[in-house]
Amino acid sequence: MYLGLDLGTSGLRAILTDGAGNVLAASDQSYPVSHPHSGWSEQDPADWVAAAERALEAIKASRPKELAALRAIGLSGQMHGATLLDAGDEVLRPAILWNDTRASVEAAAMDGDPAFRAISGNIVFPGFTAPKLAWVKAHEPELFAKVAMVLLPKDYLRFWLTGDHASDMSDSAGTSWMDVGKRAWSPALLDKAGMRLDQMPRLVEGSDVSGTLRKEVADRWGLSDSVKVVGGGGDNSASACGVGCFDEGDGFVSLGTSGVLLAAKAGFAPSPETAVHTFCHSVPDTWYQMGVILSATDSLNWLAKQTGSKPAELSALLGDRIDGPGSIRFLPYLSGERTPHNDAAIRGAFVGLGIGDGHKALTQAVMEGVAFALRDNHEALKATGTTLTRVLGIGGGSKSDYWVELIATLLGVPIDLPEQGEFGAALGAARLAIVGDTGAAPAEVMTRPAVARTIEPRADLAHAYDDAYAQYRALYPALKEIL
């Protein structure tokens, strides 16, 4: 039996699978996000551990015999977060999350040094880990002096499970401290960032064993203390493992809290000037590129909160088929934006509101704005030489046929929707555990899901949406001038 733990932004998902990857049990546990100041986003690492304990308790209650036969655990999680430990492995402050933008000044200073792009292969985004530590050094110097270890969120769970300080290549690639091409920490970047190699966890590949379960944890859940814990991956890399996305040209579009357009790459071919991320894959000797928007379903969730509605109620107003763009433009920069703008300060806007516009028109504008932003990502990926002929649609937003058809039309590629079932980051983590325990080839374990149906682009409406996208593209520089 194998366990996959996915530490998300709003909650943890745990799944128990057999050796073939069939899901036998699952548990979802939520925890809060704190926003003490504008642009700040923090969590208490103790909440992650408590969620994992609740999830294991639930799985043990439903599948005690199967859980007792557990052989390995895989981890996935939200990327870029900074969890700071002192010399006694005590947490020094709340973890600073991926969508926290307080370190924009520090990120710009680092990005101004050509070495960061040259070695890491990426722009230094404010949400990355390195500028967060620079912010702590500047604003919390006494605390910074106590930092003995920096762990990414899922790697704090690993520490709780194993007592080891370790991380995987894919998650660590998003810190701005790593030589992503060499798949190793960069002494030069660490030095430039005022950090030391001994403050970094040991690196392993996603399918390599990073440690074994601590006896205290094993005894609590009736497990063997020989249970392996593998490297795992950042959430998008693990999701790629969950949907079998490894080969050049394989890709997916994810409509979750954030929006992602990801393409697997056979080699390391960074293009930081496009604001596309180039990271190590969880699978050895493989990389991936992706464009990221910070507010995808979060934009619809925000509108639902403002209107006193549920997101599903708003999307239902539009039906299942697109029929041309609306007259309102929405820029989904509620938390700033990554690809292609790398702009932590920009904020969202509605343009073209009329007195007769109601919930339906606003919903259409929001969904179109997110789709236009994903088109921005596609254009950035194409600028790197990446070609996608079709993509898999995943994430909660992919339940809306309207949204998926809209995105397919704007990207100009068919979107395959998988059959119902588990195929996300938690499954990817469990699959990495299977590979780490059995030594099986990743391609044998991490197969693509069966496709339930394909939503094709609407050629009859492509020109109209291209025109609307051109209007959308013109709004960012105009908005930037006044903010």
UniProtKB/TrEMBL annotation:
Pfam family, one: FGGY_C
Catalytic activity as recorded in UniProt: D-xylulose + ATP = D-xylulose 5-phosphate + ADP + H(+)
Residue span(s) of domain Carbohydrate kinase FGGY N-terminal: 1-242
UniProt cross-references to CDD domains, sorted A to Z: ASKHA_NBD_FGGY_EcXK-like
Residue positions binding substrate: M79, H80
Superkingdom to which the source organism belongs: Bacteria
First-level EC class: transferase
Keyword Membrane included in the entry's annotation: no
InterPro entries the UniProt entry points to: ATPase_NBD, Carb_kinase_FGGY, FGGY_C, FGGY_Carb_Kinase, FGGY_N, Xylulokinase
Site (Important for activity) residue list: D6
Annotated Carbohydrate kinase FGGY C-terminal domain residues: 252-435
Key words, A-Z: ATP-binding, Carbohydrate metabolism, Kinase, Nucleotide-binding, Transferase, Xylose metabolism
Active-site residue numbers: D235
Keyword Ubl conjugation set for record: no
The protein's Enzyme Commission number: 2.7.1.17
Family in the record: Belongs to the FGGY kinase family.
PANTHER family (UniProt xref): SUGAR KINASE (PTHR43095), XYLULOSE KINASE (PTHR43095:SF6)
Biological role stated in the UniProt entry: Catalyzes the phosphorylation of D-xylulose to D-xylulose 5-phosphate.
Protein name, UniProt field: Xylulose kinase
Lineage summary: Bacteria, Pseudomonadati, Pseudomonadota, Alphaproteobacteria, Rhodobacterales
Name of encoding gene: xylB
